[in-house]
């Protein structure tokens, strides 16, 4: 397998990683920001509230985006296996 194909595969893997972590990280970011604004406005500085809300947002985003994430991983894995079988021939 040429170096160009391997480097393209590595780039594709990194880009896939970035795209797949966006839903949970984005949900955590938005939930954390919203809770921080509410806590600042009400002057309640309880750290467990922020954690619980962010954890719930991440779980909800994984439930919603989970099938899409799984299908993207499956497609990438199938491509990698196809490349492996093409090299072994």
Q: Which class best fits the helix and strand makeup?
A: mainly alpha
Question: How much β-strand is present in the residues?
Answer: under 5%
Helicity, in percent?
over 70%
Mean pLDDT: 91
H/E element order: HH
Give the distance, in angstroms, between the N- and C-terminal Cα atoms. Answer: 11 Å
Radius of gyration in whole Å, from Cα? Answer: 19 Å
Q: What is the overall number of helices?
A: 2
Give the biggest beta sheet: none
Uncertain segments of ≥5 residues (pLDDT<50)? none
Tertiary shape: elongated
The strand count comes to 0
Compose a concise summary of this entry.
The chain is an all-alpha fold.
Structure report:
By secondary structure, the protein is mainly α. It is built from two helices and no strands. The chain has helices spanning 3-42, 47-88. The longest helix is centred in the C-terminal third of the chain and has 42 residues, at 47-88.
């Amino acid at each position: 397998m040429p170096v160009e194909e391997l480097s393209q595969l590595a780039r594709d893997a990194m880009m896939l990683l970035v795209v797949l972590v966006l839903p949970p990280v984005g949900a955590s970011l938005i939930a954390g920001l919203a809770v921080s604004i509410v806590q600042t406005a009400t002057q309640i500085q309880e750290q467990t509230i922020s954690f619980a809300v962010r954890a719930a947002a991440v779980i909800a985003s994984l439930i919603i985006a989970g099938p899409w994430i799984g299908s993207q991983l499956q497609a990438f894995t199938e491509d990698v296996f196809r490349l492996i079988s093409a090299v072994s021939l």
